[in-house]
Amino acid sequence: MKIGIDQISFYTAQYFLDLKTLAEARGVDPEKFYTGIGQEKMGIPPPDEDVVTMAASAAFRLKERGALEGVEAMLFATESGIDQSKAAGMFVHGVLELPARCRVVELKQACYSATAALRMAMGLVAMKPKSKVLVIASDIARYELGSPGESTQGCGAVAFTVSADPRVLAIDPEAGFYADDVMDFWRPNYLSEALVDGKYSTLVYIKALQESWKQYAAESGRSLEDFARFCYHIPFTRMAAKAHQKLAKGISDEELQRVIGESLIYSRSAGNCYSASLYVGLCSLLDNAVEDLNGKRIGLYSYGSGCVGEFFSGVVQAGYRAALLTPAHENLLAGRTELTFQQYEDIYHYGIPTDGGEYIFPQYRTGPFRFSGMQGHKRIYAKARI
After folding, report:
1. What is the side-by-side strand order in the sheet with 337-338?
2. Residue 123 belongs to domain with CATH number
3. Which residue out of 49, 106, 155, 233 is catalytically annotated?
4. H or E stretch including 346?
5. What residues contact residue 192 under an 8 Å CB cut-off, 6+ apart?
6. 224: helix, coil or strand?
7. Phi first, then psi: what are they for 86, rounded to 5°?
8. DSSP code, position 248
9. 349 has catalytic annotation
10. Is the pTM of this model over 0.85?
11. By residue range, what is the domain housing residue 237?
């Protein structure tokens, strides 16, 4: 029985900062960002957008298509949690008006958790093949102003349904995975910005990839030549390129661009989406591939700092393009509003109140839902006025 991704939807904030603007304000050459890390823009969520509204907006497109009918579980992956007890997915369950017969869980392991959610979803479907599971990954990457990580900020969400006989990608059973207790990236409860040891994190990312690939290759008997394309976790697009160069030693620039280039297009404009990152790359590949990928095998590498890495694969299904949301994704990215540097810093400094009082947030551009305010320590979500 084939199990995998049946439909998939991507969302990012309606605002962005061009990294040329950031470079000018910080007094650095724009090519440090455009070429050095391979990023051009970063998505900036306004005060009334958070991981819940982004997640709900990504999933709402699937709901409009009827794809959420029969969903019996929702697994929400994030490292931008909003409550120490209540799963962010419960808020999404409410605004999407999903049925009461639905398991809802939040998962966390840095940027890896969406892949853990996919694996859990496949297990649920295997036990009950006629059921479906909704997986959502939603995150906001945030670092200190002026820090080395500032240019790798971003935000986004991906929602996908997992089912038997999937229309988009059937996941292969083989996988390689690796875990190690390291401090390459973390965010203590008392900080709103992540801490990162950038050079060390790059080394750990690569080590986890190499170890995962060794296991996968031994278990599957496959080589790199058995894959039409590759998708990587993308903290910044140059990281994905460096990672593949480590696996495919001596690969030409042209071949590198062919096998990973289409997967990097959306991330170059949305920025780092943490747990959603790999699946933003998958959306980008499927939407932008010039070649028909019907029947082709895709290699996927998921990494979460701290750390867990997994290399796995899937086969693109016949007729997959009919199940994609390509025009919606293209229109989303094309229709965003560019921020000035001052507007970016003003939004950055806009803090969510923590005193338990009553607050009503001004409306900015969001998707179908917005974070409208706080009342009695409770987050209030509402439909956005159009």
Report:
1. 41-43, 15-18, 337-338
2. 3.40.47.10
3. 233
4. helix 341-349
5. 142
6. helix
7. -75, 130
8. S
9. no
10. yes
11. 3-383
- Residue of 93, 111, 273, 307 marked active site: 111
The closest alpha carbon to 325, from 71, 67, 69, belongs to 67
Structure tokens belonging to residue 327: 């025009």
Cβ neighbours, 10 Å, residue 127: 8
Going from the C-alpha of 342 to that of each of 32, 165, 345, 346, 350, the distances in angstroms are 21, 49, 5, 6, 12
Q: Does position 386 have pLDDT exceeding 80, yes or no?
A: no
Domain count of the fold of the chain: 1
Q: How many CB atoms lie within 10 A of CB 17?
A: 25
Over the range 326-361, which residues count as b (16 or more CB within 10 Å of their CB) and which as e? eeebeebbeebeebeeebbeebbeeeeeeeeeeeeb
Respond yes or no: is residue 283 known to be catalytic.
no
155 is catalytic: no
CB distance 242 to 343 below 8 Å: no
For residue 241 the two structure tokens come to 């390129």
pLDDT in tens, 199-237: 999 999 999 999 999 999 999 999 999 999 999 999 999
